[in-house]
Every structure is written in C-alpha cells, then in structure tokens.
Write a structure and sequence with these properties.
By secondary structure, the protein is of the alpha/beta class. It has 4 helices and 5 strands. Strand 4, helix 3 and strand 5 form a beta-alpha-beta unit.
C-alpha cells in the first residue's frame, strides 16, 4: 500500500510516492492500493488540473482510503472537494485541506494503521 502526493512543483513529503503529472497520479491509483492521496489543483499549463483527477476518481471508482487537498487555489480546492464529496463512498475520508504536520510526521515514520 502506498501514499501518493500529486504536485508539479512542491517537494514530496517523506513516505509518499510523487506524481508530477495527472496521468502519473491516475496510473498509480489504477495500479496500486493507495492509502493516502494528496492533490494539487494547478498542475501546469501542459497538464490537466486536479479537478480532472477528482472526476476520474469518481468515474472510475479509484478511491484511496484518505484524500487531502493541499492546493493553494481556493477555487480549485472547492471544485475538487465538491466533485469528490458528492460521490465519496463510506469508509473513505475526504479532507477539505492539506495534511497537518502531525499527520505528515506519522506517515514519514510509517506509523499508519491499516
């Protein structure tokens, strides 16, 4: 089980697999069991946005166990949250913001529970 951090610019936190493009993120969601997913919205001019990833998660049922939205775009966060919130299945935790420093440290230490 892996944790995925999708961002075209920011450094990857410890304990995550980095997806620099939306396609990399979707491939990881399709091919791996994902525990925690953290999404950016603005992925660069040559890529889709995090909103497209949120739509694909819903359309393809690619839900990880936990989703965070670390984007600095208020509009993008709103779009992703509303897309995911409307369809999130029971057992999936959706956060309307980034991970706390405590959660990041927990993941870095490998202390997550199944």
């Amino acid at each position: 089980m892996i944790n995925v951090y999708m961002d075209d610019y920011r450094a990857m936190p410890h304990g995550f697999t980095l997806a620099r493009t939306t396609e990399e993120c979707l491939l990881l969601l399709r091919d791996c069991e994902v525990r925690v997913l953290s999404l950016d919205y603005d992925m660069g001019a040559a890529d889709y946005s995090g909103g497209e990833v949120a739509r694909r998660i819903v359309l393809e049922g690619l839900y990880p166990r936990e989703i965070y939205l670390h984007t600095s775009s208020p509009w993008g966060r709103k779009e992703m949250y509303e897309t995911l919130y409307a369809a999130v299945p029971a057992g999936v935790v959706l956060h309307n913001g980034p991970m706390s420093s405590g959660k990041l440290q927990e993941i870095a230490r490998g202390e997550q529970t199944e």
